[in-house]
Amino acid sequence: MIDYAKTFEGVKYKYGGTTKKGMDCSGLIYTSFKKEAITLPRTTHGLSTTGDWIDLKEVQEGDLIFFATKKNSRKVNHVGIVTTSRIGYVEFIHASTSRGVMISNLAERYWYLAYVQARRIL
After folding, report:
1. CATH superfamily ID and name for 2-120
2. Has residue 122 got a pLDDT over 90?
3. Which of 1, 42, 89, 93 has a 20 to 30 Å separation from 30 between CA atoms?
């Protein structure tokens, strides 16, 4: 599922998108899990209540990681899939509105401050 998600790296951001022509953050999750015959909610909000809450220290590859990127808000509006996890280091693939599908690191200040929760689907 992670390898499939990575095939979308570089695809531009498109709200509501689920293809190589354009992808949004929840579309990337939906499409990647669907490839494994797992049907998930299509929205970030729906995904944020699916599966089991897990502590950030326990995240593994394939877990979902959620963010609140709007200023002065803790409401979840962005999601990614953990691609690498080891003590003190978490990478995730997501669809950025400005840069499209890419891999980012939770150590980046922006993402660290925006982090809200992690959830395990599998």
Report:
1. endopeptidase domain like (from Nostoc punctiforme) (3.90.1720.10)
2. no
3. 89
